[in-house]
């Protein structure tokens, strides 16, 4: 059997016809977040190098395009910090991710307690700024979803250490938390000063919309990041999961995941068209929140080709041709 040397991306950009908007505060938040991130010895060496080319300010500006500057700045700080955590966890075993999780969660639960590790200081500083204007429900959901993120990242580190490839169902459940999307979506509430009652946020339809958006962002990310990950031998990605459990070749697995991505956009559209009414004021806020999820769907798709994280400097070319040439495996 011939070994694949390239694969064709599914055309997800064409399937998603939402309007792409970019905040006018993009340059300012990029500059200010970078100052915060690089302050003192927060990021050093190789980790600092990874920050360049990420273009996280563009991602935030596409995903929270209508946010006022102070809110967008905090959203961008979080997403940049999340990528930093992701890069840290890639190099850790499960005990390393557990100790990082302990420091971060302790900083959220006890922000007045002194934290010595760098990541603890950054977390405490961030949280103190967020709680100034975030509603109690938003604060609670932020902590809850971030806790889920760490639990799942620890499980992922364990699987990686043991060389385990989970089945599709287990992988999907885990990936919805390792993506960090749930906490990023909580920031939609913060970004637009929303105070939606818990029973509305916990309703089946709002949960379903969040899940559809999370699935699209996460599974499309698995397609876009597959090349870099396969070169490092990382199997925490839906494509190897499908190849392994369905005995598919690479292109068939990519097409399969692409189909799931398109279905998640369709699912989002159906739910969005069937939103019930909770009364004028709550409906107004729900509309803003759901539009924020749509911004995340379209923004993340376009950003993936602008960032250098997945396709280096040839993202725009790949966006046009949809051809990805496989990188050699690192020894």
From TrEMBL:
- Which Gene3D superfamilies does the record match to this protein? Farnesyl Diphosphate Synthase
Q: Cite the SUPFAM superfamilies for this sequence.
A: Terpenoid synthases
InterPro entries the record matches: Isoprenoid_synthase_dom_sf, Terpene_cyclase-like_2
Q: Give the protein name, as stated in the record.
A: Terpene synthase
Its needed co-factors are: Mg(2+)
Recorded E.C. number(s)? 4.2.3.-
Q: Which GO terms describe its biological process?
A: isoprenoid biosynthetic process
Q: What class of enzyme is it?
A: lyase
In the record, the note on similarity to other proteins reads: Belongs to the terpene synthase family.
Q: Which GO terms describe its molecular function?
A: metal ion binding; terpene synthase activity
Keywords per UniProt: Lyase, Magnesium, Metal-binding
Q: Please spell out the taxonomic lineage of the organism that makes this protein.
A: Eukaryota, Fungi, Dikarya, Basidiomycota, Agaricomycotina
